[in-house]
Structure prediction request, 355 residues.
Amino acid sequence: MAKHIGSEKSGGRDLEKALDHYSRGTEFLNTNNIEQAEAEFKKSLALNPDNYLAHYELGTIYSRQGRSDLAIREWQEALSINPNYHRAHFSLGLAFEKSGMKSKAITELQIALKIVQNQHDSNGETRIQQELERLQRVDDFQKAVTDDPDDIGARLNLGIAYYRQGKYSEASEELEKVASTDADNMNAHYYLGLIASKVKKYDAAVEELKKAMHINPSHAPICLALGSIYMQQGEFELALNQFELAVSLSPDDPASYHNLGRAYSELGRWKETIEAYKQSIRRDPNDPYTHNNLGMAYLKTGELEYAIGEFTRAIDLDPNDPRIRLYLGIAYSRLGRLSKAIEEFNVSITLDDKN
Prediction:
């Protein structure tokens, strides 16, 4: 069973001091003051060695510094205190991969996946699954294609795996072979469209996505992909039509409403923009970018307190994005709260220099 951040054996005053040092450490880490953050986390652990979050953040610092052995040690220590902390399993898995220990990396990611599935964390589940697919599948699919070059399913999966790795040339080669053999393979055309979009060949992307849509008109991701291309081309009404269709096909998908909000905002339809982003947040309250975009919409309509609330929530979810800090500073400035505005502008500059 996991221990609490503060162990019962710690004295109350020591525990309070330990938590204070931990809080300072996170503030320093969020503003990229690495040396100060490291010092504060170490002070916290000296007072309370059972603070698994301090061990985890110390590992994060060591990882940023390229000190992988120390990072692994801290993440393992965090897991000895709280074996169900999925972030430590995830970070440990990526560290093992970088160190060439692929089997250990897969094991840690599988543990992390099981934990988030039990916690019904859909966002965490998607991220971990992507990493597992990246690590596990390419070798398997390459072998399957070598063993049977006519295995369309294996070749399709190989092409998709290459796409997820960002190997667009290799992915295109495999997917084009699938499409030439099976012209009605929706996934082949869909992923060829995504690849063409990634390399900014938008006309080719639209052509492939329309082929995919002709094969399966009810596949909402095709609408989202087409809409995103139209947004890139400045065709906002066409994009809006695709995102509206995506919402009708997949009404529980937060991405459909998020993109609908983007299209409305480009058209200056702020009331609809706000409602679309609210609908997205109802389906996924933990996406910092939707909270940020909703805050921007409130800035446009002059609803500054609402804007501050959304920017603050976005920062809670992603404290290292300088743009959100900038927008929050603008909202404070318009309300005349200049000291808060300057504070956020300074944090934004610090984060921007880091990035």
